[in-house]
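Slide 14.
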Amino acid sequence: MIKVHMYFFLSVFLVFSTIAYADVPKNSTFKKIFIVIFENSEADKTLEQPTFKALANQGAYLNDFRAITHPSQPNYIAMTSGSTHGIKDDKPYIINAENIVDLLEKKNISWKVYAEDYPGNCDPVEKIGKYARNHNPFISYKNIRDNPKRCAKIVKGSELAKDIKSNNLPDFSFYIPNIDDNGHNTSVTYADHWLKTTMVPLLNDPKFMHDMLFIITFDEGDNKHPTPENKIYTLFYGNMVKKKTINHEYNFYNMLRTIEDEWKLGTLKQHDITHAPIEGIWR
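Slide 15: predicted structure.
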């Protein structure tokens, strides 16, 4: 009788555990995603760099991927909330809008933002050292900034190595290099070297890359000499993607919709709802 009761309560516990801790859908094309954002380079100039070029030949390279606008900040907002919400500059804002974190948490999917040189502790500082807040959209969303538990998931870039070592990498990772490493205050050549020395070792690590979709993109093209197309280097990399050049026009709203659809998150009912997911990239 005791064993029957034990099995009954164990079964109930497992059922409720499954309900309470929903995760990435089992039939998803990828189980984890890692996004790295670089700065201010046209796609053709980026492809002249050896590491960016080599990787473009090893994954699904989106040859006509376009940023939404100029300058930096509205693009970061667009890729994480489906709209620029009227923001047209790099000034600090508090944005009262739903964002991808809301969709992830509704499905109990883990997330974290890694920002190089970020001071931590939910600090809304605009600039400090080589950290720039306008490259970190998550600190500007009111429902993240005002929530200590959520805000604590915006961490220093150095936390990444610790999370990988302890096997605590979240399902959704958003990595923000500092203004040197992302090319903003240096050059795309500098960013290429950083990519080679910092991220390529992870791409070559089978354990890290297991079921991982790794996205490399830029916030915008050349902001000093802008082109109407605003074309930027964007690569989807992982065992689940084809080694293929995609010539269809896409942008950050398509990228957001791709994540939403693959993980069955629903949409934010912004521009993501009218933009199709990226097609022709999966094996």
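Speaker note: The chain has one domain: 28-274.
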